Amino acid sequence: MERPCAWKRYDDAEVAKLEQLCADYRAFISENKTERECVTASVALAEAAGYENLDQVITENRALKPGDKVYAVNHNKTLMLVNLGAAALEQGVNILGAHIDSPRLDIKQNPLYEAGDMAYLDTHYYGGVKAYHWVATPLAIHGVVCKKDGATIAVCVGEDASDPVFCVSDLLIHLAGDQMKKPAAEAVDHENLDVIVGGRPVVIEDDEAPKEPVKQMLLDLLAQKYGIDEEDFLSAELEVVPAGAARDMGFDRSMILGYGQDDRVCAYTSLAAQLAVPEVERTSVCLLVDKEEIGSVGATGMTSRFFENTMAEILALAGLESPLALRRCLANSRMLSSDVSAGFDQLYADRFEKKNAAIMGRGLCFNKFTGARGKSGSNDADAEYLALVRDIMDEAGVAFQTCELGRIGAGGGGTIAYILAEYGMQVIDSGVAVLSMHSLWEVTNKADVYEAYKGYQAFIKRA
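Request: output the structure for the sequence above.
Response:
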């Protein structure tokens, strides 16, 4: 049962729509490489589309009614958009959920040191990475430094053409005989993913000369540019990411090469779909969360109470304050847990079972289950819900495919789906096929991006 290539369905007008969406998406992931940046940019787009800050509505104790649009932000790293529909909230809502964190290197709290007349920042990797990807490649630093006086200083170095970039060094091939004999997982020690950030000493000729002049030179530059000192690293969140913008890929420009497409390709298309549907019968929710790559933990992960608490606030402002109303709403809701799928790669064909693999360019992917081995750690959507989703997609003319994450026993992975399913709501994983997932530069097909956008709109209109 082979699904057709989505590109074969498009006329010139449809291709123009596809290209515009993908240009906007490419700009979004180029400019927003951290969860904080994604939230800030998404809030700006939401406000331009008429969404209000829920905190302001709560402060004014203003009742919510069908047609109202609000957003809530959690610790600057999680965002929830709600478009209230005409149907009773106790009948449930339609949710598009995705995550906006991506694998990266995080700067440690006590990171700066000098060795061999160079200055380094020590890092701790975040999420599932192959350490050897991160050496000898241009890197940028994004994030914030929070000072004791309450000031928050934004940092973004390495993206502008006039900026310097950074790198993690690699062992030269001439001395790498022993390294080349190691398994890939051991070829580069994760503890050695330290970023080179300076190589020039401060010059002081008298007795005041610092013991670590290269480190001091860097500290002087940071003080001059940002007004921060070494102790300010203690309250900083600085992320090391690949430097450079996402690009069209292929002579035919049919693909996108960019950092962080897991899972910002689903986050952006979910956000764009939410904003593109101004009026809904059943309340629609777009939920963009943090920490999925490390288990959805913490105050900004999906296992926090942010979603539940925000829904409680929404119901209360709509005149439904009872805990039972909230439970009914959540249990009757439907969700697309929007996360990427492993695109079939002919070069590694033995890792896939092709007839149940996500083929690039064949549209939005649906994973009935994820997990590992015997579906461990998976939400497994029921057949009735999958039938509904099929009908919605077919009615809207959305190209879609069903898939699994590789061969049985080859590995596995999970999403936020199982967490929302604990409320009793219907949830299925859906998303875009990606090549080179969790590498510095991931690949998506523009047709899949476009079909995801169309599919997410169809879902919030009719689910």
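The chain has a mean pLDDT of 94.
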